[in-house]
Design brief:
The complex is a heterodimer of chains A (663) and B (609). With 663 residues, chain A is an alpha/beta fold. Helices cover 61% and strands 13% of the residues of chain A. In chain A, strand 15 (627-632) and strand 16 (635-640) form a beta hairpin. The chains are: A alpha/beta (663), B alpha/beta (609).
């Protein structure tokens, strides 16, 4: 019976996780055509089975016990009437056995309650544990995704994977799964008991259930459909609200309130219609099922009565129990069991919405998790090194201030070491974010160790893109990039990035103290090293003026600091990393001029002795570069020192003098 | 709070009232059905003398038959009554479901509308007091919470107590003794079940904070993906996230373990009641002569079935009631936040019969002091006196926090001065109709926002009835025409939410075009060209000077170059105008100005060196 029970209890639309069920698999295949979410739900359940197999088996056993006991509770009345009340009334028996019977029942019920408590408590752990594992898996997986994933997905959408979508799974795992198993076993047990009582009456029940299923199909189907419509319109309304709240000040400046109200009303009314439809179906499901149950109940009472009144029906033929037990007790038993039977159907149908939601949530989650991770075929590593006087480089196990590339040669089985000097070359590099739309053409450049290379050009000219290629946020389409003579594709990505210090236009600090934020650059840095880095970046003074100094907590991206202060901390963070090569992408663009002068001094110190790539809007900040590249539509159109370029009187000259043109 | 929220029911009063009425009828029918069924069973069973009495709702009609074969008609009578009741109950169930859906969706609609309208009337000051995200939450999640609570209130919160009372009352008619047992168990159950969610709620409260913490981790990681990757801190981030996730798991497990006791307690109560009733009822049916039954009254078999059903109904309605109670308390916080917005009065209103015409682009600040909090000890602007003639170009320079934006925002009356007055066209801004004033004072905010829609639609914001030619002209002025034309869809290019599919510089130029199209008398640029390259920046200023000679132009900028040729340059520091004059004058008189200029134009140094 438990075997069969399990089959019944497989949640709708979720059976992929359970192997070896031919019929279901066949059904599944068909369903898969129009409902691809099946697989996602199966994977969610797979997480649960894989990590909590033993406990889940206990849960299933306990649920079966709970359901069977619950089904048994509905025949207590029948047994009581046929074994004690009727005989006593007819004078053929007495109540002497009653206390014993009650005690046995109580014992069985207690087992049921205990099983119920057990599975609920274990399920709370399994459910939360599974969600925890899924969340962590999601996050771990997300860390491996290429930067293009983050560039092409809105942060809000990614966030909602961890909140809304995981939430739908919570409902599925902790509520829907146990309830479906429970109701399934209940249904099965009820059917068995009904067969035992009376086949005729069972036929009536089956007819009733058929009607119920039709109703469920219609109502729940519509409910799910309208619910999806509602979610979509809600999404639109929420999107509109979000946009207009963000632009509220613009709305006011342009006196656009009236139009905004009208636009809002239009969307809001549509939402109201959709919500009314969705909730109507949601609200009437239970009364409809309950009352079909009532009608079924009434029909059974009537048919049963007729059987008694007419008396001609052979009770022995229709019932497996002792015909002498009396028709009344059978009817009464049947009536109670039908109640719990219809209740179970109602419970199952109520879960349909949750399954639909969880399916959608799981699909989005696995979409993210199935995104191909960032590839890394590199094998050259970055190691601490010692340099002997004769120039030979050997590996060291601790920080020495010198780094080397550890280059294993598979063919010969040897390992060579090159000192990291920060020599970067690009040869004929082409690149496209989207295949076919090349944004960088034939980029060739040389950055000698210790040189400062600047990129100048209009927004969209490809300045940032070049730096994205050096640290391999994106991979080049054609051409070659060499780092100290090594093709960067051969260098392990983490090691490559560790050798490059970056300061970005957007500061992106993390919740935590200032100390922790600067230490982000080098997790092993001591407090002294952190403070030294802050001093280098000219951040020390303002940090000391804060009430808690280096222990000041930064909240939501450092909202409690000014833009300039945030940027100083991010520069200190990169200083703390102490990488041999630096990439500074518009690092000072959002700071006012006088603060910038301060930052600039810090940056100048930071740049000393390192190979540096600088992107800047203000030409004044790149003037002292060793070489300036002027970019236009993805091509280097001019290159040279500031003086050379001015002499050339080309684009750079015009850019540089552009500001003074009107004088 | 309830009073303010209920103002939003309005046209949905009728369904809001009908819903509980229908529910009441439904409950009434639902409770009577077991009663009639028990009549039927009693009829079939007959009394100890073999007499079958036809009774309804436990009340004898006096009709009796001694042989069931003659009672077939009565069985059909029962059948008719029962089926009619079930059908009626079904009808009312559907009606109440629909009324309830209509009422709650409509209520939510009105609530959202009221909130949105209210926010539209907010002043800048009001907007500042709420964060954008908190306003969004109020309009979305909070309204949904209140909507769900409302649905509960007009349906389940009516249904459960009614069901409880009706079932208990009918149980009393069957047997006061057993009904008293029910009442006792129900009370014990309520106490237990109320304690559980209360304990769990405390933990849930804590969990929600931890949820925020986890969300923060994800948010920072996603937004800072470049930083994480550049520093190769993926493992560090995973560690932080795992800690946050574990925190949630641990607390949630605790809370859910407490909640897990709900179900066994309910079952325990149901089983207990069934057994108790069975034991007592059996005695009351069979042992009619005993002293116990003499005291409590006797029962029939049919009564037993009804009593058992009432037991389930009573307990279930209790459980529902507790659930509803928990859900409603959860939405109280949402309701409070909604009311907070609804009761906020805009601190800046358009005067009745305000002036509709702005005569000229003259601007005058007269002893202006300004504080965002209205607190004279925390002044953002101090003793500002300023006269700008129509058609002049005025540049404003100053470091971050020097209140440049605060100064210009007083001109279109986005904020009111704390003391002193701002005059436009010689008239105090407070005397103008707000719409009239703001359509003549165009402002490009520092935080530029484009809205989802085509470029054309976005530009039309400045002038709803603008022709295509006017749009192109404005875009040409803002040096935006060239890049717009290079888009495959040109002016019909769709701008994504937040304007993410155009670059920062392009976005700024579109915002400028949007402001210029209305041909305003005063144009204010609040650092509006920071992402535009110097050459384009200069071109914009040049074309404005040519095409809008009579408009007053006020330009806040970081670059000296952007304001150098202005008729007047103001240097702000710490909320005060510390220097005022032309470029040449300031180069001579203002240290700050000279400082900024020199840093930005090291070329001069080169010349000297």
């Amino acid at each position: 019976m438990p075997e069969n029970g399990k089959k019944e209890t497989v949640p709708e639309g979720a059976p992929d996780g359970l192997p070896g069920r031919k019929t279901l698999k066949a059904m599944n295949k068909e369903r898969k055509k129009n409902m691809p979410k099946d697989k996602s739900l199966g994977r969610v359940l797979g997480y649960m089975f894989k990590n909590y197999r033993a406990r889940f088996i206990i849960v299933v056993i306990c649920i079966v016990i709970t359901a069977v006991v619950s089904a048994m509770s509905s025949i207590v009345l029948q047994i009581l009437i046929s074994n004690y009340i009727q005989p006593a009334l007819e004078g053929t028996g007495d109540l002497s056995g009653l206390p014993g019977f009650i005690t046995v029942c109580a014992a069985i019920f207690l087992v049921g309650v205990a099983a119920n408590a057990t599975y609920n408590i274990i399920m709370a752990r399994i459910g939360q544990g599974t969600l925890d594992i899924i969340r962590k898996d999601m996050f771990r997986k997300m860390q491996t995704l290429p930067i293009s994933y983050f560039d092409t997905h809105q942060s809000g959408d990614i966030m909602s994977l961890y909140t809304n979508d995981v939430d739908t799974l919570r409902q599925l795992i902790t509520q829907t799964v146990p309830q479906l198993i429970n109701s399934g076993v209940m249904l099965l047990a009820s059917v068995v008991i009904m067969i035992y009582y009376s086949l005729w009456l069972l036929l009536v029940v089956i007819a009733g259930v058929f009607v119920m299923l039709l109703a469920v199909r219609h109502i729940a189907g519509s409910s799910v459909r309208y619910f999806i419509v509602q979610q979509n319109t809600l999404g639109k309304v929420n999107g509109y609200i979000e946009e207009s709240m963000h632009g509220q000040k613009v709305i006011k400046v342009f006196c656009h309130e009236k139009q905004a109200k009208a636009d809002f009303d239009e969307r809001n009314d549509a939402l109201c219609d959709a919500a009314t439809a969705a909730n109507t179906y949601g609200n009437i499901l239970m009364p409809v099922l309950g009352n079909i149950g009532n009608i079924l109940y009434v029909l059974l009472a009537i048919i049963g009565s007729l059987m008694i009144v007419l008396g001609g029906v052979n009770v022995g033929f229709i019932s497996l129990i002792d015909p002498n037990a009396g028709m009344i007790s059978i009817i009464i038993g049947f009536l109670t069991i039908v109640r719990s039977f219809t209740q179970s159907i109602a419970t199952v149908s109520q879960q349909i919405n949750f399954i639909a939601q969880a399916g959608a949530g799981a699909r989005r989650i696995f979409n993210m998790m199935d995104t191909p991770p960032e590839e890394d075929n590199g094998y050259v590593e970055l190691v601490y090194a010692n340099k002997a006087e004769d120039g030979t480089v050997t590996e060291s196990d601790h920080y020495t201030g010198i780094w080397a590339w550890k280059h294993p040669h598979k063919a010969e089985g040897t390992v060579t070491y090159h000192e990291l000097i920060g020599d970067i070359e690009m040869h004929d590099v082409d690149f496209a974010y989207v295949p076919g739309k090349t944004v960088l053409h034939d980029i060739t450049l040389y950055a000698k160790p210790g040189q400062k290379v600047a990129f100048v050009g209009a927004t969209g000219a490809g300045k940032t893109t070049i730096t994205n290629l050096i640290n391999r946020f994106y991979d080049i389409e054609d051409g070659k990039i060499r780092y100290d003579g090594i093709n960067i594709n051969k260098i392990k990505k983490p090691d490559l990035r560790n050798s490059l210090g970056m300061v970005l236009q957007e500061t992106n600090l993390f919740t935590g103290t200032i100390m922790e934020n600067i230490r982000y650059g080098n997790l092993e840095a001591t407090d002294e090293e952190v403070i030294a880095a802050a001093k280098l970046a000219n951040a020390h003074d303002f940090i000391m003026r804060l009430p808690d100094g280096y222990n000041t907590m930064l909240e939501s991206d450092g909202a409690n600091l000014s833009q300039g202060q945030r940027q100083l901390i991010s520069i200190a963070r990169t200083a703390c990393e102490n990488a041999p090569v630096l990439i500074l992408d518009e690092a000072t663009s959002s700071i006012d001029t006088r603060t910038e002068a301060l930052v600039q001094r810090g940056m100048d110190k930071l740049m000393e002795g390192r190979t540096v790539f600088v992107i800047a809007h203000r030409l004044s900040t790149v003037r002292n570069s060793d070489v300036i590249m002027v970019l236009d539509h993805g091509r280097i159109i001019e290159r040279g020192t500031h003086e050379q370029l001015l002499e050339k009187k080309g684009t750079y000259y015009h850019l540089y003098t552009g500001a003074f043109e009107l004088e | 709070m309830v009073k303010i929220l209920s103002r939003s029911i309005r046209e949905y009063k009728l369904p809001s009232i009908l819903s509980p009425v229908f529910v009441a009828v439904e409950v009434f029918l639902e409770v009577l059905i077991p009663m009639i069924c028990s009549d039927l069973i009693n009829f079939l069973q007959g009394d100890t003398f073999g007499v079958h009495g036809f009774s309804l709702v436990g009340v004898s009609t006096g009709i009796q038959v001694s042989d069931l074969g003659d009672g077939l008609g009565y069985v059909f009578a029962y059948a008719g009554i029962l089926i009619a009741m079930a059908a009626l109950s079904l009808t009312f169930g559907i009606l109440s479901g629909r009324a309830c859906a209509k009422a709650s969706a409509g209520f939510a609609k009105n609530l959202r509308k009221d909130l949105y309208y209210k926010i539209q009337d907010f002043s800048f000051g009001n907007i500042d007091t709420y964060s954008t995200s908190s306003l969004v939450t109020r309009l979305t999640t909070d309204v949904t919470n209140v909507q769900n609570a409302y649905m509960m209130i007009i349906r389940i919160a009516v249904r459960s107590p009614l069901m409880f009372i009706a079932a208990l009352a009918l149980a009393f008619t069957k047997s006061w003794f057993i009904a008293l047992i029910y009442l006792g168990v129900a009370i014990v159950l309520v106490v237990l079940m109320a304690l559980i969610p209360m304990r769990a709620m405390k933990i849930f409260h804590r969990v929600f904070k931890k949820y925020d913490n986890m969300n923060l981790r994800v948010q920072e990681d996603v937004r800072g993906a470049r930083v994480v990757k550049a520093f190769v801190r993926e493992d560090h981030e995973i560690e932080k996230f795992n800690r946050a996730s574990d925190d949630i798991r641990d607390d949630f497990t605790k809370a859910e373990t407490i909640l897990a006791l709900n179900s066994p307690i309910i079952y325990f109560a149901i089983y207990g009641i069934i057994l108790t009733v069975c034991a007592f009822a059996t005695v009351m049916i069979v042992d009619t002569d005993s002293a116990f039954v003499q005291a409590t009254g006797s029962l029939q078999v049919g009564d037993l079935t009804a009593l058992v059903q009432y037991a389930t109904m009573i307990l279930m309605s209790m459980i529902m009631l507790i659930m509803v109670f928990v859900m409603i308390t959860m939405s109280v916080e949402s309701g409070r936040r909604i009311v907070e917005v609804l009761t906020t009065e805009s601190d800046l209103v358009s005067p009745e019969n305000g002036r509709k015409e702005v005569a000229t682009g003259d601007v005058e600040f007269d002893n202006v002091n300004f504080s965002y909090a209205g607190d004279v000890n925390k002044l953002a602007l101090r003793n500002v006196n300023l006269k700008i003639k129509a058609g002049e170009t005025v540049g404003i320079l100053g470091g971050t926090g020097s209140s440049k934006s605060s100064l210009v925002q007083l001109i279109p009356r986005l904020y009111d001065t704390t003391t002193g007055s701002v005059k436009v066209g010689g008239v105090d801004v407070r005397e103008y109709d707000l719409d009239a004033l703001r359509s003549d004072v165009a402002m490009v905010l520092q935080k530029n926002v484009l809205f989802s829609g085509t470029i054309k639609e976005n530009i039309r914001w400045g002038k709803p009835d603008a022709t295509d030619e006017e749009i192109v002209a404005a875009c040409k002025l803002a040096q935006a025409d060239e890049f717009i034309s290079s888009f495959p869809d040109g002016y019909d290019t769709y701008i994504e939410q937040g304007g993410t599919n155009v670059s920062g510089g392009q976005r700024q130029r579109l915002c400028i075009a949007r402001a210029l199209i209305a041909n305003p008398k005063i144009i204010i640029f609040d650092d509006s060209t920071s992402a535009v390259d110097t050459k384009t920046d200069a071109l914009i200023r040049k074309s404005m000077a040519e095409s809008l000679p009579n408009a007053t132009k006020i330009i806040i900028a970081q670059r000296v170059a952007s304001v150098e040729e202005a008729d007047k340059i103001l240097v702000l520091d710490g909320g005060e105008i510390v220097a005022e004059g032309t470029h040449d004058e300031l180069m001579r008189s203002s240290d700050i100005y000279r400082d900024i200029y020199n840093i930005q134009n090291k070329k001069e140094d080169d010349g000297n060196a």
